[in-house]
Amino acid sequence: MITVSELTARAARGPRLTVGPVTLTVEAGTKTALVGKPDAGPPLLLAVLAGALAPRSGSARVGDAPASAGPAVAYVPYDAQLPGFLRVADYLDVAARVRGEPRVPPQERLAVLGVAALADRRIGRLATPEARAVALVEALTSARARVLLLEEPLADVDPRAVGRVQGLVDERARAGVTVVVSTASHADARALGDALVFFHDGKVAGRATRDDAWQPPRTEGAEGPGRARVQLLIRSEGARLLLAELAADPTFDEVWAAGVEVVATGKDPVAMAASVATATRHANVELDLLTFMGGADGET
Amino acid sequence: MRPVLLPVVRVARSRGAWLAAAAWSALVLAAAWRERSHGAVHGAAQALETYASIGVPFVVYALVGAAVAPEELAGSGRPLVRLGASPVRVATATVVIAMAASAALSGLLGGATVAWAHGSADPPLQDDALLTLGVGALAGAAYAAYFLVGSALVARGWGRAALLVLDYAVGTDDGLGALLTPRAHLRNLLGGDAPFDALPSESLVALASLASAGAVLAIWRASRVRV
Q1: Domain span at residue A97?
Q2: Which of A150, A174, A200 is the last residue in one of the domains?
Q3: Which ipTM score applies to this complex?
């Protein structure tokens, strides 16, 4: 189980990105997608869970221990930084030795993602999508890894591999491995995660599940629907897509969906309408109904 | 492949570093050839000035650069540490390999320089060559540790570059500050001016201390950096 408690962190290099405070629990053997733009917090949280970044406050624990790098944690950041001077096959051999797992022929491991042809190539001469595929192979086929931390595992990945990642992630989760994915793509999040956690400005903006019976996402600090002044009802065949868009928007206090309907609550109807327009355009869906209801007196 | 061999492979496959080391070595050997062709009676002593002032620092600078590429000392071990390897072990392997390669090449270059430029008034060839080989190896290790400290403290090569400049700026005089640079002690051991009137034996201890203290500091610092 992964437990994050009141955690804040700041990027060590580059733009001064921050995340938190975040409180989050990920059960063992589940698949969770942290959804948000790269500057919204998910990649930073993933780095903290991997031990690549120290929390400024709060705590992050993987199992019983503070989050840190280790043979049981496989972390694949967007820039995997593999040793460019090694051949792919040598790297997989070295990785297996470091993790302390039985040696499996590298071609077999690479074939799992359809990239066996890369075995004899020097890593430094691989294209970025090929190198990312190699990093994913190492993580997804590691016998020792019990936690997979993957940043954008479906983006910029060798086309031979990208179609197989989802199936392999599902397989590892069924085997009890905990999977946490960071992505800016709602489609990728829905493809890879059973639980979705939406981030905005470094904070959790909402939560949802992949299933049709979406749970009402809870904005951190919000007390519930009764606190909202305005309620918005949307009816659309693309309700689920709209939900994913709206759940990441801080304009709304809460967003939830059932069937073809999405209900959102917030305080500023003008901003809410603008957000719905943007979400509709992004999700490329049509609205059948859009209704505002006043908060206390129920005026429509 | 054993993980501990990774720094060896990294250095061995760094073509750019070997080209740079070869170029600086060629410059030193060219100086030795010039002394030899002019029949200088103190040919070895004069060629060793080029060896100490240019050859050793730049050859070692290139080799250390290869050992810590592409992201300096802590970053070079990141791929292994991320897989669960001990940061201390990874940093130690890199430091040891960089120092060993630097010592070997510096020593051999020193011995070759003396052998080639040896003049009639220089000390006996065999003794002189062996002594220079040993002093050169120690200086190579000390320079490697010196640059590795810079690499561990500052990213993107600026740390190494800053210490190289400092070595030239401070190590060429005979003041107190020169005691902290490999250059001053190497010059003293090869028959040049002594820093702060240090005896050759004191410079020998100083070089050994620079090598060991620098290695420990670099390993300590690199092992504290996150993956």
Answers
A1: 2-200
A2: A200
A3: 0.82
